[in-house]
Protein: VWFA domain-containing protein
Amino acid sequence: MCRLNFNSFVLLYLIQSTFICADESKVIKYQTAQQWAEKFGVDLWSLGEFITRKNDVVQSFKQAQIVNRSGSVIVEEIAKEIKKMMDARISAIKRIVDTAQEVGSISASNDEVVEKNFTYYNSKQMIEPSEVSLNESPITSDGEENLDKLELPKPVIYLTESEKFSDYVNLSLSSVHVPTNVYDRAKNVIKAIKWSEVLDNIFDSNYKRDPSLFWQFFCSSTGFMRQFPATKWKFDPVDLYDCRIRHWYIAAANSPKDMIILIDNSGSMTGQKKDIARHIVENILDTLTPNDFVNIFTFSDLIRDVVDCFGDTLVQANSANIRAMKESLHNIETNELANFSAALTRAFDTLSNYRHTGANCNQAIMLISDGLPISVDDVFEIYNWGEKPNIPVRVFTYLIGREVPDVKNIKDMACNNRGFYVHINTLAEVREQVLEYIPVMARPLVLNRTHHPIVWSHIYADVVDTQLTDYEWECRERASQRDRFMAYRKTRTFQGLPDDPSTLGYDFIENDESELTKKFNFMTTVAIPIYDKRENATRIANLLGVAGTDIPINDIKRMMQPFLLGVGAYAFIVDNNGHILTHPDFRPVFYKDILKPAYDSVDMIDVELVDDDREPRDYDPILIELREQIINQSTGSKTLLQKFHFDKMRRVSRTKRHYYWTGINDTPFTLVITLPEEYGKYRLQTRSEDEIHRDTAKGTNVLNFFNGSNWKIHPDWLYCKHNNESFSSPEAELIYFLERMRQPGWRWPLNRSPPTPEHMSNVYTNITAGRFLSDKDSYYCDRNLMQSLVYDAKVTEWFSRNTSSGLNDNGSEFKQRFGVSVSFLATHSGLLRWQDYNQMGEEIRPENEFSETNKRAIDETWYKRAVEQHFIEPNSFVYSVPFDAANKNDTLVTATHAVFHRDNTRFAPAAVVGFQFQLTAMQGLFKNITNGCTEPSCVSCMHDSFECFLLDDNGYVIVSNIDFADTGRFFGEVRGSAMRRMIDEGIYQAVTVYDYQAICFINKDSSSLASKLITPFIYIWKLFKIIASHMIWLYVSLLVENVSGYGSYSYDGANYDNVDYYPPDPTEREPVSKTKEQEFDRRVLINRTRPERCDKVFTLYQMLRPKEKEKSPFDLPMSQCNRPYIAIPIPNSNMLLYVGDAMCFRHEENIPLLNQPVEKDYNETLHCMKSRKAPQYRRQLKHCFSNNSNEAQIEICGKANKFHLSLYTLILAVFVAIKSFIY
Structure:
C-alpha cells in the first residue's frame, strides 16, 4: 500500500485548493442572466405578436360596448330560467299522475283476470328484428295444470340509436323492467303492467310537447317500472335494479323519517340467521335517503353501537354514513341472551332526543330477531302509548327462522305500534319482505289523497347499481394483476411491471367534464306519488306507485348562462342538506370511470375553499354562515377570499370572489353564482346597431362571417336549440338558425327554455288533448349569446383568411424557425378560430386535433390563465407544456395572451389569442441565448458547473439544459434544495390546498372473514381455497424453477472480474429458496385494497411578483454557495429563468420537494371525524305526513312468508352469497 509523505500531502492540498478557488471564482453575473432573460422574452413576445396578430384583434373589438355585470340580477335571471325548465318537467309528470290514478283506481276496483297469452315489452327479454327466433308461437307443457309455465315468444321491437339518450330506443313505445326478485305473472303484477299500457299515450304526448324531456317512467308499488322511450335493459353481472329502492321513489312514497335499527345478536342468532339479519339491515339502509336519519344498535345482554363513534346519535342517511354502517355489520358477534326491554328503551330515548332536530317527521324502530319470548308492553306503555291514539314511533319487526314456536309477541309488537310484521326464512326473500314497510310508512300520505308532494332527488349517476364501486375496483385490480403476471412471464424480470393501481397519485384526479360524460350521465329526478283514489280504498291505503322524469345535470348547466357569467366565474346549486347538485369542482369518478364512494354527498364547503391557514375541516365561520344562508334559500351576497386548484390539481390560484344566491322556488335547491372581483365587474355587449337584424336589413349575409371550416363554437352552450330536428354538430345547428334568421317572419322566442306544456285537469278523458308546439315554439334561443357570437364572428372574420401571401421574409422565417403549428383566437361568446401551418409556414387543413380538444373557449385552462396573467403583466403570453412532455417526441408549447377591451376606467376580457409551436424550437432558442456571452471572460450555461432552467409561474419545468426528461415535471422533484431556497426567499409561495373528495385505498383485512357466517358454504369455500392455493404454489414453484434467475438478482459481470467464477452446470437446477418465493410474491402481487373516501393535503406553488419599488429577491446576484443561483422573471411571460451553481447543490443532500397529495391522518375514520366536526345544519323539507285518523281502520299489519322462487331469484341469492364471501 502506497504512503504519502507530509510534503506531498501539502502539495496536493494546495493544488486542489487552487482549483476549487478557481472554480468558485467562476459565477454567472447577474447582468449576464438579465440580458439572457430580456433577449429570450423579447424574442418570444415578438413571435407571439406576429403569429397571433394580437394588435389586429385589439382593434377588432374597439367598437364593442362595455356594460356593468350585476351579480344579483344575473342570479335571479338564471334561477327564473331554471325554474321554468323544472316546471315543464313537473307539468309532464302531473299528466302521468292524473292518468295513472284514474286508470289504476278503475283497474283495482274490478276483478278482471289478465289473459294467459298477454305479452308486453319486457326490456330484458324483447328482441330486435334481426334477433327474431323461428318459434313465433307460445310454448306450453302438456296439461292444463302447467298453464302457469306458459312460455310466450319474445316481443319484437324496432330500436334506433339516439345520441340524446345514449342508447338504442323506440320513441313510440315504453318498455317494462321487472326486478329479478319479482314474478311478472303474479296476479297483481301482470294486472298493473296491463293497465299501465295506457301511459304510453301520455309519455308520447309529453315528449311531442317538449322534446327536451329525458326518461319518463312509472314505478309500480308491485315492483315493475314502465319507462319511456323503450330500450333494452343492460346488466352485468346480474340485474340488481329495483325502482322501489331508488331515492326518488322512497322520497316520494315516504315523508322523511328517523330510524333506529335493533339487531338481536344473542347466542341463538348464529349461522344463516346472522347472515339473513345482516342482509335485512343492508336492504333497509338501501331504502333511506339523505333526508332521513338513522343509527344501528345490536343487543344481547348489552347494547352496542354498530359504528362506535355514532354513539347515541342519529346520523344523516347519506351514502358515506350508510357505507360505514354496512362495513361495520361484518364485525357483529353473537353471545349471551337478548334484553329486548333495554334495547327498546335505548331506541326510544334516542328517538326522543331527535324528535324535533332530525327528520322532524316520522320515527320508526326496526327490530330484527329470531323470536320474542316475552311481552315488552311495559316499555311501550311508557314511551309510545301515553298519548293514544297518537303513537309517535312505528315499530316494524322482522322474524327470522323456520322453526319459531310462537310469533304472537313479535307480531303484536308491530301491530300495536302502527307497524308491520314479516317472517323471513331465506336470503332470497329478504328484499321483497323489507320493502313491505314502505307502503305502511306511506299510509298517512295516501290517506290524505289530495296532496301530491313533488320531490327532488340528490345528484346521482344513471347506472343500474350505484353501489358497485368495490366490485368494479376489484375487477380493475384483477386485470392489473393479470397484466403483471403476463409481463413477468414474458420478460422474466421484475423491471417494468405495470403499476399497482392503488399506488398512483395524480392519475386518480379526474376533472375533465368531457371525460365524465363518456360513461356516466349525472342527473336529478323529480317524482310525484300516485294513489288509489277509490272511495273504499281507505281501509288499505294503496300506493299505486310513483311517476317521475330525469333531468340531466348537463341540461341544468346549459341554463346557467356561462356566457353571461364570463371567464373565471361559475354557478353551482346546493340542496337543502348543503350538498351540491352541480359544481365545477365536482369530481365523482376515479381511475377514469369508477364512481367514488359517497360521490353524491359532497358538501358545498368541501369545494369552496377559503384562502386562510386553517387546518383541514376547520372551516372559516364566514363560510359556515354563508352555507346556512344558502341552505335557507334567502337572497343575498357576500365576498370571500378563495383559493382554487385547476389543471388536475397541479396549479393553484387565489382571488377575491363575490357570491350571489337565491332560492329556486318550490324546490329544495338554491342557485349560487360567484364572480371574480378583478375582471367580473363588466362584460361586453353588442350594440343595437350591430345586431343581426340590422346587418340583415343592410343586405349583409351573416353566414359569410362563418365561411370556411376553421371555426367552432362551444359545444355545451345553448345558442339556439331545435326541438324536432337533430344536427350533426353544434356548428351545423348554428348555420341552420342563421339561415332561418335571414327569412321573413323570423321572431326571437321569448324564453331560453322550452315552453311549459299546459297541464290538463282531466287528462284521462282527454288523452290526446293539449297544445302541441307550433313551428315558432319548436325552438328556443339565447338571444344575447347569439348576438354576441355573430358580432364576434363579424369583427374576427379576417382571422380565418389565408395569410401566406401577405407574409414578409421575417414572418416566414419566424414560422419555420419556431415550428409554429397553429395560431388561434377564442372569444368570450364561445367562438374558436384557428389557422394550421406546416413546417414551411403554409396554412393547411388536416384533421384538426387542436380544435377537437380546445373548443370550449372560456372554459379552457389556457383561456383562464391568460386572463389572470393580464393582471400580473398585461403585455405577456402564458407558456405551458404538458406534464407528460418528457414522454413525447413532438411536444408543443402553448402560448396564450388575453385581449381586453377598455373604455375609460371600465374593462372586460374580449378574447384570448394564442399559438402552439415546437418545444424543441424553444429549447434551441434557450440554449442559443444562454450559451452566449458578450464578455470574453464570462461563464454561460454551457459550463458543466451550472444548470439553467425555464420554470413557469407554478414551478413546472418548461426547458432544462440538463435533461430533457425534466420537462413538465415540478421543479421541486428535480432540484428540491433549490426550490426550497426560492420558497424561503419569497420567489415562490406555498399554498396548501385540501382535497375533500379524495380516494384512499385500504388494504383488505383477510381476518375479517372470520367474523362471517359459518355455514356449509363456508367450509366448501375454504376447501376450495386450500386446493387452489396448493395448485398455485405448485405452478409458481415450477415456474420459478424454469427461470434461470430473477432479473432483480442478476449480477453485474464487472463486479466479478477478480473473482474465480465457474458457471453452473446447465443440467443442474438450484432449489428455490423461501426468500426468493417471498420476493416473487412481493414484487408481482398487487395490494388487494378497497377504495374509501378520505381527505388529502397537497401544497402547490405560485410565483410571487414584487410590487413596484419593493425590494425583490429577483434582483439578487449569485454569491457562490451562499446564494448559488439567480432567479429572474422572463419579461412578457409567466416564466422564470433559473441559473444555479450545480457544484454547491452537489454538496447538499437533494431531498425532492413533492407536490403530490398526501392523506390526512385524523387518528380516526373520516365518517367519525365528520360526525363530530362537519356542519350539521340543514333545512327540513316542507311536506310531512306522519299521522292520519283514518289509519286506525286499516287492520293489515303482518305478512307470513310466501315467496315465489324463480330461477332469477335463485341466481340472485347465489350471487349475493358469493359476493358476501368475496367482500
Q: What stands out?
A: The chain has a mean pLDDT of 83. The first strand starts at residue 65 and ends at 68. The CA atoms of residues 482 and 841 lie 48 Å apart. Residues 71-109 form the longest helix (39 residues).
